[in-house]
Write a structure and sequence with these properties.
With 159 residues, the protein is α+β, with helices and mostly antiparallel strands. The protein contains 7 helices and 5 strands, in the order H-H-H-H-E-H-H-E-E-E-E-H.
């Protein structure tokens, strides 16, 4: 998992300035913020709205519409479970239930100890090896219940 910087308003403002003249600047700015800090702090919404001549509601609407944007720092490990059709056909719902039960969280939540964040994705490009999931930056295919437990155990030991 990449190490993110702690949120810093001055750095966030410099990222806004660096990208605000691009066409459709809001998404590049949001990606830059999340890439640097791991999330988009709600406190930056007024500055984004002002810099781009948008309403706060418009900025918030974009942030909340795209599931990739987080409003809080992620856990040490981000577990992304594929929910696309191929993975559905191969039993991903059982894995989703197992992951939620094991971690004690739902999608878009982080465990209380900060070790795991659980996210849904709608294709990992690994359809021929469904069901698939991703932990941090590594994709795993043909995941069954036993393999899911092994992967979570292994990631937990790397925290």
């Amino acid at each position: 998992m990449p190490n993110f910087d702690a949120w810093n308003d001055q750095t966030a403002q410099s990222l806004i300035e660096a990208h605000k003249s691009k066409p459709g600047a809001l998404l590049p700015i949001l990606h830059a913020l999340q890439g640097r800090f791991g999330y988009v702090d709600a406190g930056i919404v007024p500055a984004l709205a002002k810099a781009l001549n948008l309403s706060r509601a418009e900025v918030h609407g974009v942030i909340s519409f795209y599931h990739d944007f987080r409003d809080a720092p992620p856990g040490a490990h981000v577990v992304r479970l594929c929910r696309a059709e191929a993975c559905q056909a191969m039993g991903n719902e059982r894995l989703i239930t197992q992951a939620k039960d094991r971690l004690g969280i739902d999608f878009h939540e982080t465990t209380k100890d900060g070790r795991f964040t659980l996210e849904a994705v709608y294709c990992l490009g690994n359809c021929s090896c469904a069901p698939a999931l991703m932990i941090d930056d590594k994709v795993y295919g043909r995941v069954d219940a036993r393999r899911l437990d092994q992967l979570l155990d292994g990631a937990g030991k790397r925290s």
